[in-house]
Amino acid sequence: MSGCGCSSSGLRPVDEAIAALMAFVPKAPPSVRVDLEDALGLVLAEDVQSPIDLPLWDNSAMDGYALRSADSGRLKITGCVAAGDAADVELRPGEAVRIFTGAPLPPGADSVVAQEDCDAEGDWLQAPAVAPGNHVRRRGEELCVGDALLSAGQKLRAQDLGLLASVGLDRVSVHRPLRVCLLSSGDELREPGEPLAPGQIYNANRFSIGALLRGWGMEVHDYGVLADTLAASRDALSLAASEWDVLITSGGVSVGERDYLKQAIRELGELHLWKLKMQPGKPLAFGSIAGKPWIGLPGNPAAALVTALVVARPFLWRAQGRRWAETLPITLPAGFDWPAANSRRQYLRARLELDSSGVARVRLHPQQGSAMLRAASWADGLAVVEAGRTLCAGELLPFLSFSELGA
Ligand code: AMP
Ligand code: MG
């Protein structure tokens, strides 16, 4: 693609690059119906309405006594209704019924007095005056039949599954997980647990990026380590493109003679974008082969992680069928000075800490090297310093929390 920022000098601003990627988001994977037990972390493919009123009947919010609000003073206790009982005996004027939390209100009763607010002795209750509806959870007060519960495009969380269960739904329609092929490029890479020969290092990206993808509800197809040759790159990429929805590589996209991935992509498909105005993460590349998107993450582990979170994530979330992929940074005071401006936007590994008056501020890890994962592991998120900006402690800056980013 000409004018795409693929020249060696042009660096794409991050927001522009993300917008360019978004134009290539493929259709979301087809929907499948799954049991609620299997739905955690998957993306809903349908809008869901409540099939019932919730609560389904008037019931007590307290342990106490059901009565008529018109009555007070000395009342005869005529029965007891617990959660799980059917309350079918009519309560008459001058009567009260012992009732427990969640039990249906007996017909005739319109109010509950909490047991700590009244005195009971034998079959008699001394009750204060209470308003109609006191401690009563009314039928449909939370939801009525047909009310919107959840929307297509949202990732199902624990509370969403609980809500679906509470209205009796046992299956939901979700997008099947996006099938992502993960390749780690580099002759120097060995797997943890293996001995290292001179010049070799452990493959960190396979684990960090693979874990991110799985946490985002995607299926990872790990093709292991890709040798640093053009032929190996071509073969692995064309096989992966024939089998999976999206291809993600790490390493091999820099400017070294052994970085063959961009060349392989150019030969097999199209390179849409290369090199971003961000640090860490400058060498990120994006292209497509046989209609399948390819994201080339940098090799340096912190750069791979940051670009996966900032650039690949919105693309992948949308490709998975998620409707909301944008993250809202929170704005917080810096707990550091940034005296020298950079030419690229900085994504700094940072933590929130409280100052002496209890106000949160952003603290940086001292090791911000793009090869260093230790700072990311220490951090709660990324502090963003714009290109060209200097900062004094106390000035506000955006902070992207790892939990917002799904890390
Ligand atoms: P490259 O872009 O392939 O030159 O890689 C940049 C740096 O990242 C080099 O120091 C590589 O050894 C390192 N690197 C590449 N891939 C990985 C990986 N999967 N795990 C850890 N380090 C890596
Ligand atoms: Mg390499």
What structural keywords apply?
single chain, 407 residues, alpha+beta, Molybdenum Cofactor Biosythetic Enzyme, Chain A, Molybdopterin biosynthesis moea protein, domain 2, Molybdopterin biosynthesis moeA protein, domain 3, 4 domains, six-stranded mixed beta sheet, 8 helices, elongated, disordered N terminus, binds adenosine monophosphate, binds magnesium ion
Tell me what you see in this structure.
With 407 residues, the chain is an alpha+beta fold. The chain folds into 4 domains: 159 residues, MoaB/Mog-like domain (Molybdenum Cofactor Biosythetic Enzyme, Chain A); 47 residues, Molybdopterin biosynthesis moea protein, domain 2, CATH 3.90.105; 79 residues, Molybdopterin biosynthesis moeA protein, domain 3 (Beta Complex); 76 residues, MoeA, C-terminal, domain IV (Beta-clip), CATH 2.40.340.10. It is 19% helix and 30% strand. It is built from 8 helices and 27 strands. The strands form 7 sheets. It has a 6-stranded mixed β-sheet, with no helix packed on it. Strands 17-14-18-22-21-19 form a 6-stranded mixed β-sheet, sandwiched between helices. Strands 20, 23, 24, 25, 26 and 27 form a 6-stranded mixed β-sheet that branches. A hairpin with a 2-residue loop joins strand 9 and strand 10. Helix 4 packs across helix 5. It is elongated and about 95 Å long. The N terminus is likely disordered. Bound molecules: adenosine monophosphate (AMP) and magnesium ion.
